[in-house]
Amino acid sequence: MKYNKQIPLVKNIGLQNNFHKKKQLGLNKAYASDTATHIDGDTLYIAGTRNMRDWYDDFTKLLFGLTKYAHRYKQADEVLKQNPQVKKMVGHSLSTSVSDELRKQHPEKQLELKALYASPFIDFGSKTHENRWRHRGDLISMFDKGAQVVGGSFNPLQAHGYENYD
Description:
Layout: H1 15-32, E1 37-40, E2 43-46, H2 52-60, H3 71-82, E3 88-92, H4 94-105, E4 112-117, E5 132-136, E6 148-152, H5 156-159
Parallel strand pairs: 2-3, 3-4, 4-5, 5-6
Antiparallel strand pairs: 1-2
């Protein structure tokens, strides 16, 4: 199944805001999709944790470096195979690990991790990565010191979201 509906540009907001707003709209469509993915041109959007199966994978596969055996990885890998035009990926939470694993498993595609939100990465390096963002107060991404910190919330569900990065 190929997806090719374009996400409209959001008018009357700044360039940086438009970047994040477009990513948010693509992730909304991924979360609403049966495959937990959405294609917009050459970009694959992958939803994060949505159900109990995902929670199970979070704690039994991702935690032990077995991401390629997770259900979300298998879904995204199948969509990637059916859509050879994909060159970029956008993900939130669980799907940031899935995106990184897809990039590693398909080096011939030279996939770019375009935007990753609330990543469960453990990165204590001093270099900030231009394509990773997190909110202050997010317990899932708190060890991703390479992410750019934007805003925050005392509500853990809001802090772990992929919205409000403008």
